[in-house]
From TrEMBL:
Protein name: Tyrosinase copper-binding domain-containing protein
Organism of derivation: Gossypium barbadense
List of residues binding Cu cation A: H186, H207, H216
Keyword Plastid tagged: no
Any matching Pfam family: PPO1_DWL
Length: 615
């Protein structure tokens, strides 16, 4: 149902401390983004240190708060309260608080930049005669239908699903319900086709912020409604790829028949079953040339690693809306130099983690763009994309059922009133607001009940020493460091750095968070690095997700959309530490923590690292 309407750093100065490097990874011949540009001043030696003070954030050198933090993170703080940073901003209402909305009239070609090559892609929706924008209204009194796990569907369901997809692909090319037109929705919202209403110079981006889950939920919802319309079954639901469970960690068989409309030739042929997805970085090390004891052991290790990754991203690191959904994303800018103009402030745990890992796992090795799933502009062209995002959407449902009084969505109107435009099954253009899609059951669907084994996959420490012993190790290392400054350039070798903890008192409900600020990289590069704390091992074996010292990862999927302008992306990474500190028995009065950064792919510069408390 719908009704017709009118459309309308400060860089902290830390006490003297140092960074130690470790050759955890062998040197490779990766290309360097810094060969193309030199945006950073850094010393090439791999021993680094900084001078700063967590206790002097408001001194005379503290210029503009907006110039130091991502504007969207200012409003949100880290705990999900839009005005949680009022102690740092005198008048938060003086800053524009504008919901995001795509300007349909501004839609132009999307640009896809691979660094050395660039192309324009027409991704805008077709303009239908006499079409009006209508506001979405959730169905009333509808029965709940359950999306099935892809590996569990029967033959009758598969026949219906394939029939629907075949009919969608057979629609006229200018029909907005045609499969390629539907795929182009993702391209348009992810590669700069739209400007924001009221801000013609600002491109709209639905990744790396709190818009990620709502946009993709409604994208799949209308895709599913169109499929149901084409086969005369309004109750039809699409399958989800159950990659968070051992039985679903390979590409689902129903998508692998070359003669099926569910098939896509642009996939990584090396990752066909029985190869398991790696939910940490998308790279598989289980390649079954023969199924011997070694293969079975490696397979079990990969399964266990994936379960630990899911526990990390859903339980340990996602205790608040800001950590799970990502940072706030507001319309417009404070000034031309405001970092808030950049549409990628910070993604949430699942978006930055398993979501990108699966994209990388499926996408073909097709330089320079790695279509289809390996690039945002083309990802929607693979039918498997919709099953993948079905499971991503399922994570949103699960997250709100986990223990913890802060596991609830934002309640700020600026988020709830942000909106997207989609064509529905009747070719009506519909405006959907975030507030319309907070509960999948109000949309008439939920997910088949399956086991969630990662809830039982709590990581354990690599070593059994107490927090006191670790503190002595830290103190011993502190005496022998040469001193260098930020930024840290992370490419082929691991970096170990001692970070002071806040001197202010921790409140009862505060979460201790590791903050990596001003992470700069080429948005066209595939990037991954892992982060661990107090990993004092002096060997070549970095922490893994099953270790309590492992606290998270940073990932980037190529999504260049600035062919004729700056390609560097500046973003932040926030990693909650409270549970890890408890698991490692680190004394709450310990004055510092050792952070280890392990590069897995690509090259980045990190402008600053600090630890803070958030509520």
């Amino acid at each position: 149902m719908a009704s017709t309407t009118n459309s309308p750093s400060t860089l902290l100065t830390l006490p003297n401390f140092s960074i130690q490097t470790s050759t955890f990874l062998p040197k490779t011949s990766q290309g360097s983004i810094f060969k193309k540009k030199k945006p950073f001043n850094f010393n090439s030696k791999r021993v680094v240190s900084c001078k700063a003070s967590n206790g002097k954030q408001n001194d005379a050198n503290h210029t503009s708060f907006l110039n130091r933090f991502d504007r969207r993170d200012i409003f949100l703080g880290l705990g999900g309260s839009l005005y949680g940073a009022t102690s740092l901003v005198r008048d938060p209402f003086a800053l524009a608080v504008v919901p995001i909305e795509p300007d349909l009239s501004s839609c132009g070609e999307s640009t896809v930049d691979a660094g050395t090559t660039c192309m324009n892609v027409p991704c805008c929706p077709p303009k239908l005669k006499d079409s009006k924008i209508i506001d979405f209204e959730p169905p009333l009194g509808c029965k709940i239908h359950y999306r099935p796990a892809a590996h569990l569907v029967d033959r009758d369901y598969l026949y219906k699903f394939e029939s629907a997809m075949e009919r969608m692909k057979a629609l006229p090319v200018d029909d907005p319900r045609n499969f390629m037109q539907q795929a182009n929705i993702h391209c348009a919202y992810c590669n700069g086709a739209y400007s924001q209403v009221g801000f013609p110079d600002q491109k709209l981006e639905v990744h790396y912020s709190w818009l990620f889950f709502p946009f993709h939920r409604m994208y799949l919802y209308f895709f599913e409604r169109i499929l149901g319309k084409l086969i005369g079954d309004p109750d039809f639901t699409m399958p989800f790829w159950n990659w968070d469970s051992p039985c679903g960690m390979t590409m689902p068989q129903i998508y692998l028949d070359p003669y099926s409309p569910l098939y896509d030739e642009n996939r990584n042929l090396e990752h066909q079953p029985d190869v398991l997805v790696n939910l940490n970085d998308g790279k598989s090390f289980v390649k079954p040339k023969k199924k011997d004891d070694f293969y079975e052991l490696a397979k079990r290790e990969q399964i266990n690693s994936n379960l630990y990754v899911m526990y990390q991203q859903m339980v340990r690191s996602a205790k608040t809306a800001s950590c799970f959904h990502g940072a706030a994303y507001l319309g417009g800018c404070v000034s031309e130099t405001d970092i808030g103009c950049t549409p990628e402030p910070r993604g949430g745990t699942i978006e930055n983690g398993a979501h990108i890992a699966v994209h990388k796992f499926v996408g073909a090795k097709n330089p320079p763009y790695n279509e289809d799933m390996g690039n945002f502009y083309s990802a929607g062209r693979d039918p498997l994309f919709y099953a993948h995002h079905g499971n991503v959407d399922r994570m949103w449902n699960i997250w709100k059922t986990l223990p913890g009084k802060k596991r609830h969505d934002f309640n700020e109107n600026v988020w709830l009133n942000s909106s997207f435009l989609f064509y529905d099954e009747n070719t009506n253009m519909v405006r959907v607001k975030v507030r319309d899609c907070l509960d999948s059951k109000t949309l008439g669907y939920d997910y088949q009940s399956v086991d969630i084994p990662w809830l039982r996959s709590k990581p354990t420490p690599r070593r059994s020493c107490s927090g006191v012993g670790r503190g002595q190790d830290v103190a011993a290392r502190r005496k022998s460091k040469n001193r260098r400054g930020f930024p840290i350039v992370l490419d082929k070798v691991a970096v170990r750095i001692e970070i002071p903890r806040p001197k202010k008192s921790k409140k009862k409900d505060d979460e201790e968070v590791l903050v990596l600020q001003n992470i700069q990289l080429d948005r066209n590069d595939s990037v991954q690095f892992d982060v661990s704390i107090n990993d004092d091992e002096d060997d070549d074996n970095p922490c893994k997700p099953e270790d309590a010292e492992f606290v998270g990862s940073f990932s980037n999927l190529p999504h260049g959309d600035n062919c004729h302008s700056e390609t560097m992306l500046s973003t932040n990474l926030y990693l909650p530490l409270s549970e890890a500190l408890k698991d490692l028995k680190i004394n709450p009065f310990e004055d510092s923590i050792v952070v280890t950064l392990v590069p897995k792919e690509g090259e980045v510069s990190i402008g600053n690292i600090k630890i803070d408390y958030v509520c």
